[in-house]
Amino acid sequence: MGGVFAGGKLKKVSTSGGLPVVLSDATGGRGGSWGENGTIVFTPDARGTGLSQVSAEGGTPQPITTLDSDKGETSHRLPHLLPGGEVVLFTAYGATYQDVQIVAQSLQTGERRVLIEGGSQARYVSSGHLLYVQPRMAGTLMAVPFDAERLELTGTPVPIVEGVVTIRGDTAGWSVSRLGTLVYLPGGLRSTARSLVWVNREGEAEPLDLPPGPYEYPRLSPDGRQLLVKLGALQPSLWIYDLIDKTFNRLTFEGNDGWPLWAPDGKRVVYASNRAEPYDLYWIPVDGSGKEELLLARPEIQLPHSFSPDGKLLAFLHADPTTAQDVWLLPLDDPQQARPVLQTPAVEFDAQFSPDGRYLAYASNESGRNEVYVRPFPNLQEAKWQISTDGGRETKWAHSGDELFYRSGDGMMAVEITTQPSFRTGTPRQLFEGPYRRSSSPTTAQYDVSADGQRFLMVQEESQEVEAPQLNVVLNWFEELKRLVPSN
After folding, report:
1. 8 A C-beta contact, residue 273 and residue 280
2. Residue 401: which of 354, 442, 366 has the closest Cα?
3. What is the DSSP code string of 264-278?
4. What is the DSSP string of 152-192?
5. Each residue of 131-171: pLDDT tens digit?
6. N or C, where is the chain less crowded by C-beta within 10 Å?
7. Are 417 and 389 within 8 A, CB to CB?
8. Is 119 in contact with 142 (CB distance < 8 Å)?
9. DSSP assignment letter at 136
10. Cβ neighbours for 140, distance < 8 A, ≥ 6 positions apart
11. What separation, in Å, do the N-terminal and C-terminal C-alpha atoms of the chain show?
């Protein structure tokens, strides 16, 4: 038998075939370990949960670890049961993917012991070693002699395999069998180089004078002088580029920050950060005159979408365990009065206020695929118009309010909008098409629009030769491991 996370569930499936059997809910599973006694220890969700255990025969899952909020723990992930099934190793996460530690906990007494600061994805092997990755040495597999009975390190950690593929550093593409076969995917840190480019309505591109980097979510300031962008792979942060002075300065320094949004007056930036897991809403002055402030913290993920033109309301995505992604509104003068305004079993996201504040554009998969819709605001239930006709998401209004832009596949689409004497839409037309970065989940647009609506600031993937992935397999690897890292 084997275990798998799929469709928001933990399932078991026979290696000889057959239908999978659901064992437990696991909306965002982050690792599991099948013990010798038939117990499975797993992380049911990526957001603010400890480990749980459930019998491989089914039953009610039982929590076995609790987050230590005094230490800033945000998640327990990547469990691994030691031989005998009485002790579990796991990775305790803090505010970032680099703020981790490997912990051992007794399933009998609940006693915990920190084994390695700054380590994650631990596995014990019969050669007497603890294997793990070290996020700040992204893509490097480490080994240290380990006494599994006393739960003590008995030697010095040694890097044994470098260049293992990793995206964030906290996990890497490797595994090892009980008999000593090592399998890993080479590649090191995968940080895609991208460029920021202006693209006109005919599809002609002009790059910004910036070096390639892992850019995402470019946002032009209300006066058009500055560019806000998410930058970074291991610990994403927000940066501001002055388009006039050609200076580039970092704005945020804690957590993993993203999905930035300028306030209408250009004095503050709202964004989401997972420093307290999950992603909560923060804002910060752009001139350095004050510290960042927490706008709203809830148990579910929240991502900012758009401000009302007067700056009094913030539309944001709220991830609900029963209704998927919904659109909520947050009054800036009383954030605790945040409330849902589009909440159905479908996924609603990317809500964008029109420039005059009278309409709300958004995307939804209510038809079975993502399409763009518009509703009147604030009376959202009075009417609804479907804007896209062949799929759409990543909505943006023209500053004039007479056009609505969205992405359909690789195409940039435009639709004329008329609001007087009544709301009417034109036929969607494609302005240009290109391999520019697109949102991979129900979030917000990966582009912005100039004030005159004639240019689009896009994120362009750098062209690279794509090589077929190749697994490296090392047989009888334990012999080499014992030679490189002798254990007592």
Report:
1. yes
2. 354
3. TTSSEEEEEE-TTSS
4. EE-S--EEEE--B-BSSSS--SEEE-TTS-EEE-B--B---
5. 999 887 888 999 999 999 999 999 999 999 998 988 778 88
6. C
7. no
8. yes
9. G
10. 133, 134, 159, 161, 162, 163, 164
11. 35
CA 431 – CA 202 distance, rounded (Å): 6
User: Distance (Å, rounded) from C-alpha 451 to C-alpha 456?
Assistant: 10
Share of the chain above pLDDT 70, in %: 94
pLDDT tens for each residue of the chain, 488 residues long = 567 777 677 777 777 777 777 777 776 778 888 887 788 888 887 666 788 888 878 788 888 898 887 787 878 999 999 998 899 999 998 867 778 999 999 988 999 999 999 999 999 999 999 999 988 788 899 999 999 999 999 999 999 999 898 877 888 899 999 899 999 998 877 766 789 999 999 999 999 988 888 899 999 999 999 999 998 766 788 999 999 999 989 999 887 888 999 999 999 999 999 776 678 999 999 987 888 899 998 878 899 999 999 999 999 999 887 787 899 999 999 999 999 999 998 989 999 999 999 999 999 999 988 999 999 999 999 999 999 999 999 999 999 999 999 999 999 999 999 988 889 999 999 999 998 999 866 678 999 999 999 999 999 987 544 455 688 999 999 999 999 998 76
Type of residue at 134? Q
Task: Please state, in angstroms and rounded to a whole number, the distance separating the CA atoms of residues 319 and 299.
Answer: 9
Do residues 322 and 343 lie in contact, with contact meaning Cβ atoms separated by under 8 Å? no
* Strands (DSSP E) found in 210-312: 215-220, 226-231, 237-242, 248-250, 257-262, 268-273, 280-285, 293-296, 302-307
As given in the structure block, the two tokens for residue 154 are 């008995």
The strand pairing partners of 183, in sequence order, are 175, 473
Cβ(40)–Cβ(73) below 8 Å: no
Contact between 395 and 350 under an 8 Å Cβ cutoff? The reply is: yes
Query: Encoding tokens for residue 22?
Result: 């659901």
CA of 342: how far to CAs of 84, 253, 375, in Å?
A: 50, 33, 10
For residue 6, give both structure tokens.
């799929």
φ, ψ of residue 12 to 5 degrees: the values are -115, 150
Query: CA separation (Å) from 166 to 10, 173, 278, 347?
Result: 24, 6, 22, 30
Structure letter (DSSP) for residue 463: P
| E strand residue ranges, 52-193 | 52-55, 62-63, 75-81, 87-93, 100-106, 112-117, 120-125, 129-133, 141-147, 152-153, 158-161, 174-176, 182-184
Sheet bearing 237-242, strands edge to edge:
215-220, 226-231, 237-242, 248-250
Amino acid making up residue 402: D
pTM above 0.85, yes or no: no
